[in-house]
Design goal:
CATH class of the largest domain: Alpha Beta
Mean pLDDT: 87
Radius of gyration: 76 Å
Shape: rod-shaped
Number of domains: 4
CATH topology of the largest domain: Heat Shock Protein 90
Bound molecules: adenosine-5'-diphosphate
Strand order of the largest sheet: 2-1-5-4-3
Catalytic activity: ATP + protein L-histidine = ADP + protein N-phospho-L-histidine
Number of helices: 14
Helix content: 40-55%
Number of strands: 18
Subcellular location: Cell inner membrane
InterPro entries: dCache_1, HATPase_C_sf, HATPase_dom, His_kinase_dom, HisK_dim/P_dom, HisK_dim/P_sf, Sensor-like_sf, Sig_transdc_His_kin-like_C
GO molecular function: ATP binding; phosphorelay sensor kinase activity
Oligomer: single chain
Main location: membrane
């Protein structure tokens, strides 16, 4: 579709360009033609004036010569040879001075009495020119003018004849005595014209070319002559009796330039001076203009092509930019959708997390309560001991007071105070343990947590006859919930106690140290270790190998989640020397600070 349109446009452009070229040619040719015609017209005027002035110059020469006494003498006495000879010489001299072809005197019948060319082979003396029209005109008292090819000399010329009278008084009144003739050479003009590129021709009243810068055109007519005219020409021997054919009958090569022309009448014989403006020149000028137009069109076409290409490039760039914009918009939309999906997922996750957290809290609480039940006996024992001591110290104090032994009484009372402080401590621990933690995040000194857990389990270790060796190698501070941390330690120690219950050796060790930014607590027992099938489910909630009432299977699950909440890990393996080892890793406070700083 697009290519069809551009093809159509191209064709239109070609048609337009052709029209411009053709119009340019036609207009340029017309203008050149009119310019050249104008030029020819001017040339014509100059040539005509030139010709006219020459013709005019000799108009009066024969008239003036007619009054010479020798001339009148010759006419009166044609036999006077002496006088004739004198006249011949005089005419010859005048002819040479005035640079005409010939000057001669005719008697009343047209016979030549004397002539300037008397001494040449083609002398006119004795020749009869009565047939020439110029003679007839002059003998009848009119100036005779004629152009023709000389009868005797065969040289063309312009003849001016004037009648001769005996005196000025007779002029126009009496018949003329004879005729004085001057023959002028006009072929000089042909030489002048030869510098012109355009053909120039001088025709007589009948349209016969007798002077021209094209030799081959001479004695041919502009248009065919009819029989009467031909006959007339023969009668006057004007052009030496040669047949006059029209110019058009010339071979083509000889009539180059013949065609359009401008004319101007010149002289007194109805002559036409004709200039043929060169058609080749018109064509040349028109071609030059056309070439200029073609060049201009080519430049315009190239410029337009360049502009078109530039615009296309810009458009391409624009469309690619648009494409980019569209792609970006699409991507943005996709991303927004993805973002929205993510947000929805995140909200769901949050919800799930919340649910998990509350479930976890509930689980922890349940685990704690279960543990409390288990610990109840131990706690009772733990409290019983100081309570019994208090009673004993109180009894002692009463006795010492009655004996007025105040010092001893005071000592026993301070024992009571110590014991009750110890009890308060135990109760306080239990309070803290049973309380549902609200994620009171704080800095925990792990050695303190270990101490607290050991204290709570002290009695149980005693009843089981197990030993607990605590090795605090490095002090370690972590971030988390202190109560929950203690709960984890109690869980692990209690499991260890359970594990060594039936073992020969009942040794439990706890080591605290630092290892690459982490606090590491290793709790190892001398129990049977963890069987492979148990290891798979170790941290699953409600997984237990203990008889009902003794274990709930929540301890490790809760412990693991508490440790994870502190960004830590809880792992278990069997020690190469036997027994299980639980390893607790929690990031140190310093490393947390570093993470926060970065
Ligand atoms: P419970 O102690 O109530 O059974 P726990 O989650 O604390 O629940 O422990 C799950 C199980 O892991 C125990 O039943 C026991 O089989 C195993 N276990 C825990 N600690 C040890 C240990 N130190 N040595 C061997 N087995 C252990």
């Amino acid at each position: 579709m697009k290519s069809r349109k551009s093809l159509l446009l191209l064709m239109l452009a070609i048609i337009c360009a052709s029209a411009v070229v053709v119009t340019t040619y036609v207009l340029a040719a017309r203008k050149a033609s009119s310019d050249i015609s104008e030029g020819s017209e001017r040339q014509l005027q100059i040539v005509a004036l030139d010709l006219e002035s020459v013709l005019q110059k000799f108009e009066t020469l024969p008239f003036a010569l007619g009054f010479q006494s020798d001339v009148l003498q010759a006419l009166a006495q044609p036999g006077d040879q002496q006088n004739i000879q004198r006249l011949n010489l005089a005419l010859q001299l005048i002819q040479r001075q005035s640079k005409v072809v010939a000057i001669y005197v005719l008697d009343r019948k047209g016979l030549t009495l004397a002539s300037s060319n008397w001494d040449t082979a083609t002398s006119f003396v004795g020749r009869d020119f009565g047939f020439r029209p110029y003679f007839s005109a002059a003998i009848n008292g009119q100036p005779g003018r004629f152009y023709g090819i000389g009868n005797a000399t065969n040289v063309p010329g312009y003849f001016i004849a004037q009648p001769i009278y005996a005196s000025a008084a007779e002029y126009g009144r009496k018949a003329a005595l004879g005729v004085m003739v001057v023959k002028i050479d006009l072929t000089e003009f042909e030489h002048t014209w030869s510098s012109s590129e355009d053909p120039i021709a001088l025709t007589d009243s009948r349209g016969v070319v007798f002077l021209s810068n094209r030799q081959e055109w001479k004695y041919h007519s502009m248009s065919p002559l009819n029989g009467a005219v031909q006959q007339d020409l023969t009668g006057t021997h004007q052009y030496a009796d040669q047949p006059i054919t029209p110019l058009i009958s010339l071979p083509k090569a000889q009539r180059i330039g013949f065609g359009q022309h401008v004319t101007r009448e010149v002289g007194r014989l109805g002559w036409q001076l004709i200039v043929f403006p060169s058609q080749a020149r018109i064509v040349r000028i028109a071609m030059l203009w056309t070439l200029a137009a073609v060049l201009l069109l080519a430049i315009a076409a190239i410029t337009m092509w360049a502009i078109y290409q530039r615009r296309r490039r810009l458009e391409e760039r624009l469309t690619s930019a648009e494409y980019l914009d569209r792609t970006i918009a699409l991507r943005t939309q996709e991303l927004m959708v993805a973002n929205h999906t993510l947000e929805v997922k995140y909200a769901k996750l949050k919800e799930t997390e919340h649910l998990l957290r509350s479930t976890q809290n509930n689980l922890i609480q349940a685990g704690k309560l279960a543990m409390l039940g288990q610990m109840a006996a131990g706690i009772a024992h733990e409290l019983n001991q100081p309570l019994a001591a208090i009673r004993a110290f109180a009894d002692n104090a009463i006795t010492f007071l009655s004996r007025e032994q105040r010092d001893k009484a005071t000592e026993n009372l301070s024992h009571i105070s110590n014991a009750s402080a110890r009890m308060g401590k135990i109760v306080g621990q239990l309070n803290g343990f049973s309380r549902k933690s609200h994620e009171a995040v704080a800095v925990i000194d792990l050695s303190k947590s270990i101490e607290a857990a050991a204290l709570l389990l002290n009695n149980e270790f005693l009843t089981h006859g197990a030993s607990l060796r605590i090795d605090i190698r490095d002090a370690a501070q972590v971030v988390g919930d202190s109560v929950r941390t203690e709960q984890v330690l109690i869980n692990l120690l209690r499991n260890a106690l359970d594990a060594v219950d039936n073992a020969e050796q009942k040794n439990i060790s706890l080591v605290l140290e630092q290892e690459t930014g982490e606090a590491v607590i290793r709790i190892r027992d001398s129990g049977p270790g963890i069987p492979a099938q148990v290891a798979l489910h170790l941290f699953e909630p409600f997984f237990t190998t203990k008889p009902s009432g003794k274990g709930l299977g929540l301890g490790l699950a809760i412990s693991s989640s508490i440790v994870q909440a502190m960004n830590g890990r809880l792992a278990a393996h069997n020690h190469s020397d036997g027994g299980a080892e639980f390893v607790l890793r929690i990031p140190l406070l310093e490393s947390m600070d570093k993470v926060l700083e970065s």
